[in-house]
Automatic annotation (TrEMBL):
<dbReference type="InterPro" id="IPR002035">
    <property type="entry name" value="VWF_A"/>
</dbReference>
<dbReference type="GO" id="GO:0005615">
    <property type="term" value="C:extracellular space"/>
</dbReference>
<keyword id="KW-0130">Cell adhesion</keyword>
<protein>
    <recommendedName>
        <fullName>VWFA domain-containing protein</fullName>
    </recommendedName>
</protein>
<feature type="signal peptide">
    <location>
        <begin position="1"/>
        <end position="17"/>
    </location>
</feature>
<keyword id="KW-0272">Extracellular matrix</keyword>
<dbReference type="GO" id="GO:0005581">
    <property type="term" value="C:collagen trimer"/>
</dbReference>
<dbReference type="GO" id="GO:0007155">
    <property type="term" value="P:cell adhesion"/>
</dbReference>
<keyword id="KW-0677">Repeat</keyword>
<keyword id="KW-0176">Collagen</keyword>
<feature type="domain" description="VWFA">
    <location>
        <begin position="21"/>
        <end position="195"/>
    </location>
</feature>
<keyword id="KW-0964">Secreted</keyword>
<keyword id="KW-0732">Signal</keyword>
<dbReference type="InterPro" id="IPR036465">
    <property type="entry name" value="vWFA_dom_sf"/>
</dbReference>
<dbReference type="InterPro" id="IPR050525">
    <property type="entry name" value="ECM_Assembly_Org"/>
</dbReference>
<dbReference type="Pfam" id="PF00092">
    <property type="entry name" value="VWA"/>
</dbReference>
Length: 197
């Protein structure tokens, strides 16, 4: 329960005062196939609470297995209903490997970038929500460090067999990690209640 609160404190801490750019990096491996609709719902439930239409908040989604794929960029949607329907239309990627390190590096270089809508250089908080279901098949240390150096705040969400210590290494702070054993918990009413108005 405590971890849930931390997770959402991070996401909503600045919700009224400041803008934010949030990138969801989603494990699309075979492991997450069954839970993928719940992952989509989880992303949507956070987006619902953001200020998209007034241009305050921006959202991007990257899906990864052995390689990452940009589903849409921070600059893609300025309209919440279109953004939500883009999340509905995501297709599960599929694949046996998860190269979380490569996916984080790719996201830093190709998504958190001004030309694709990141406002990092304007001082807008940069948040990465990494959702993964298993230990990474590649090295995560260097890419995780690079994200921290760029002041990108990574929140780790582990489902299923995710490696908790690995997520603690990746997260901006070790306590920005949130682990669930079941996809259904991602969308438990408790999470919604925890979000301040
Ligand atoms: C967003 O798109 C929908 C559907 O095209 C449209 O009805 C709505 O007015 C748009 N909202 C804004 C704030 O532009």
């Amino acid at each position: 329960m405590y971890l849930l609160c931390i997770f959402f404190c991070v996401l909503v801490r600045t919700s009224d005062a400041v803008k934010k750019d949030i990138v969801f990096l989603l494990d699309g491996s075979d492991n997450t196939r069954k839970g993928f609709p719940q992952i989509q719902q989880f992303v949507k439930s956070i987006v619902e609470r953001m200020s998209i239409d007034d241009g305050k908040d921006r959202v991007a989604v990257v899906q990864y297995t052995d390689t990452p794929t940009v589903q849409f960029h921070l600059s893609s949607y300025k309209n919440k209903s279109k953004l939500l329907s883009a999340i509905d239309k995501l297709r599960h990627q599929g694949g046996s490997e998860v190269n979380t390190g490569a996916a984080m590096r790719f996201t830093r270089l190709m998504v958190f970038t001004s030309s694709w809508g990141s406002r990092r250089l304007e001082g807008v908080p940069q948040i990465l929500v990494l959702l993964t279901s298993q230990p990474s098949d590649d090295n995560i240390k260097t890419p995780a460090f690079a994200l921290k150096e760029h002041e990108i705040m990574t929140v780790g969400v582990g489902v299923g067999d995710a490696d908790f210590p690995e997520l603690e290494t990746i997260a901006f702070k070790p306590n920005m990690v949130y682990k669930v054993n079941d996809y259904a918990i991602l969308n438990s009413p408790f999470l919604r209640w925890k979000i301040p108005d």
